[in-house]
Request: fold
Amino acid sequence: MQQLQHKTYEEQRFKAPRELVAGAGLDDDSILAPAANGAAAAADGKPASRKRKKMVGGLSEETAAAAAATAAAEAAAANAAVAKQAAALANKRGKTGKGSSSKAAATAGEGIGESISPVKIEADAGSGPSAAAAAAAGSSKGNLAPGAGGEDPPSASELLWRVNPDEFNRRFRNKVMVDLVADKLGSDAGTVLAAMLSHGRRFETDVKGDIGIAMGVQEVISALKAGQDAGRLPHLSPGANVDALVKALTVDGLGCVQEGPPGLTGATFQVDMSVILSKAKQLQLHAVLRDKFGIHGLRIFNVLWVRGHLEQKQVADTVMQPHKEIRELLYRMFKAGYIQMQDIPRTSDRAPSRSFYTFSVDLSSAYKRLAGDLYQAAGKLHARLTFEMAQHAELVELVESARAAGALNFNMTDSQRKALERLQRVTTALETSMLRLDNMIALFNEY
Reply:
C-alpha cells in the first residue's frame, strides 16, 4: 500500500500562521493569537469573530486569520482523504476475511520501516474529518501488530514440516570426503577435516561447493572442540597436534586443503572440496573399470588418460600385452563408452582402409557414462526385488499376517521355511546392493 505523507490537523492548524508571520519578518503574539483563534473557528465551521483591524507592519488581523483559515481548510481536506482511504482499506480487509470492515491500516511518516497496523475508525454521524484523521493517525512505529496484517502467528499444530534434501546430500558429501582423507592420512586427519567442514557449513549456499571458507588454526581447534563436546566428532589420539595435522593436509599430494589469504591471526586454510570429490570419483571409476575389464583394462584407461591419443599398436607396446588382447579390450571399452575413438583419414575419400584410428579418454564423458550405468543397474536391482517379492507373495502375506497378529511361532512346512530363508537372503543382498549403488549415484550426480 502506498504510504501517504501528511501532517496532523493540529500541526497544520498552528504551524501555517507562524510560517506566514515568519515570512513577513514578524514575531508578535498580538498577531499569532488572533490568527490561531481564527483557524480554530474556521475548522469548527463557525465564522470568526470580527475585531477591529489592527495593522502591524502592513499585515492586518483579518488577513492573517483568512490565511490561517485557508491552511486549516486544506489540512482538513487532506485528513478527510486519509480517512477515506483508511475506511476503504478496512472494507477491503473485511471482504478478504483478514479483518472486519471497521478496521483499517494507515501509515504515518516515511521509510520502509513504517508498520501498517489495524486501527478502528468510528463511523458515527457526528464525527467529522478531523476525528477520522486522528483515528487514522493513531498508527505509529511503536504500535506493531502481532503478525503480518494483524494476524497472530500460527500455532505449533498448524506448522508444516518437510525434509531438507540438500542438508542430507551435504552430510553424505562430507562423509565421502572425510572417509577418503581418513583412508589416506589417518583417522585424526579425517576428524580435523570434518571439523573444518562443520565450521564452514553455515557459509555454504550450494551442495556442489568448490572452496571452503578461510579459517585459522585456532578456529579449527574451536570447531573441533565444539564438535567433540556435542558428540559429533571423535577425540583425537593422544599426542595429536591440530596444527601439524592441518599442515599435513596442506602438503599432501591429494591437495584437499590449501593455504588461504593471510588473516589477522596468521595463516589461514581452505578446504578444496572439488579436488577431494574429483579424486573420489576417479577412484570409484577405477574400481568399476577393474571389475568390468580387469587390471589390463584399467591400465589401458590410465595410459590413454595420461598420454592422450594413441593408436592400437602404441597402446599395446605401452601396456606390454599381446596386440590381440589389447585390441579386444579397446573395442569393448569403446563400445561401453568409457574411451573415445578418433578416425584420421589419409585421403580425402575417408576410406577406412586408408585411415588410422586413435583412442583417448575424456573424464567427464566417462563419468556421465558411469552414472548412466549406475542408474541402469539400480533399475535392474529394483525390478529383480519386485519379481522375487511377487513370486513369493503368498508366503510374504502369511508372514505379515502372523506378525500383525503377534504370533511369533506359527506352523510352516519345510518347503515354505526353505523358500522364506532363500527370500530373506536374496532380498538382503539386493537391498544392500541398492544402498551401495545409491551412494555411488549420489557421488556422480549430486556432488
About this structure: Confidence is low (pLDDT under 50) at residues 1-33, 46-59, 96-148. The longest strand covers residues 340-345.
